[in-house]
Design goal:
This protein has 215 residues and is an alpha/beta fold. The chain has 7 helices and 14 strands.
Amino acid sequence: MKLVVQSIVTGPFQENTYIVGDQLSSQCVLIDPGDEDQKIIQVLEENNLQPIAIINTHAHLDHIGAVAEIKERYTIPFYLHIAEKPVLESYPIATRMFGLQEKETPSVDKWIESGGPLKIGPFAFSIIETPGHTPGGCSYVIEDCVFVGDTLFQGSIGRTDLPGGDWPTLENSLVNLMTSLDLDVTVYSGHGPVTSLRIEKEQNPFLIPLKNRVN
């Protein structure tokens, strides 16, 4: 397999949708297709990519808005952690709260129940449970990449003031990432630029106080 990662910024929250592709087979997995389904589909078609699954780091409205349309178009399964079920079910309420157009709430085909390996076609992911921003937040590791959703950003971290958020839990998840992954892993966040775990450990003001729990 020859891994390639492409990002598409979608929707009013400028959420990062990721296409994780295999150049040898043209197959790909979508991570967090958040909005603007036609924009995502156009990129897939222009690059002759064949989606085989959708996996989500969590189920906030800005991460699931394009899931149902893409899932139906390509007849592919949708993976989500079981603890995200209440977040997913609150999608219609969340769209009204933020004054956004409500789209179809996607149905989940494969509920994730724990961390560990996740094999999808040629893609060998490892799931790390990273709750805190939401109850069932997950990070997905493949080769030297980790897709963290809204757990960690360049210079910041996910908010914990929305329903299901919890700061001590997120703190533990951040420590878990720093202790279980190579620090040179490339971090792909739900919003903002790409970074690395090493940079965030040394420069992120939210991670610096946690370093004594890592070293």
